[in-house]
Amino acid sequence: FVYLGVLVWALGYISEVVADKQLRNFVTDSKNMGKIMDQGLWKYSRHPNYFGEIVMWWGIFIIVFASTKVIWSIVSPLTITYLLLFVSGIPLTEKQFADNPLWGEYKRKTNALIPWFNKK
User: Fold this and answer.
1) Sequence-distant (≥ 6) Cβ neighbours of residue 87 within 8 angstroms
2) Cβ–Cβ under 8 Å, residues 54 and 115
3) What span, in angstroms and rounded, lies between the C-alpha atoms of 39 and 96?
4) pLDDT at position 53
5) Where are the domains of the chain?
6) Would you write out the chain's pLDDT as a tens digit for each of its 120 residues?
7) What gap in Å lies between CA 17 and CA 98, rounded to an integer?
8) What is this structure's pTM?
9) Per residue, what are the HEC states of the chain?
10) Which contacts qualify for 92-100: CB closer than 8 Å, 24 or more apart?
11) pLDDT score of 71
12) Rg of the Cα trace of the chain?
């Protein structure tokens, strides 16, 4: 299970790094002022960076639990998941874009967290 945990962590890490790089490139280009990032991983998830962060923490939990059997190690991924889904991550980010007329369509067709194909 340690290898599974490493694989899960790596998937999360790659997702977060790629999403953050794509977003940084997007926001630093003045041609994108007022637009919504909907390219790359952002085409499949409104928050692929948060998805990656959450997956990384679950990977760490799998590694720790597989090697120590310490069940309380689940506190970290549960906390991060809760905070990003309900407190500081998705709610604050989505509130920031709520007034953008392009946001409604993007929100309607794109999953909030888990990358998946767009809804029609």
Assistant:
1) none
2) no
3) 19
4) 98
5) 2-30+37-109
6) 999 999 999 999 999 999 999 999 999 999 999 999 999 999 999 999 999 999 999 999 999 999 888 888 999 999 999 999 999 999 999 999 999 999 999 999 999 999 998 887
7) 25
8) 0.93
9) CHHHHHHHHHHHHHHHHHHHHHHHHHHCCHHHCCCCCCCHHHHCCCCHHHHHHHHHHHHHHHHHHHHHCCHHHHHHHHHHHHHHHHHCCHHHHHHHHCCCCCHHHHHHHCCCCCCCCCCC
10) 93/47, 94/46, 97/36, 100/34, 100/36
11) 87
12) 16
Lookup: tokens for 18: 């790629």
Would you say 119 and 109 are in contact if contact means Cβ atoms under 8 Å apart? Answer: yes
Q: What is the pLDDT of residue 96?
A: 93
Look up residue 2 and give its two tokens: 């340690």
Q: Are 86 and 14 in contact (CB under 8 A)?
A: no
Catalogue the long-range contacts made by 71-76 (C-beta closer than 8 Å, 24 or more residues apart): none
Other beta carbons less than 10 A from residue 22's beta carbon = 18
Question: What's at 101, amino acid-wise?
Answer: P
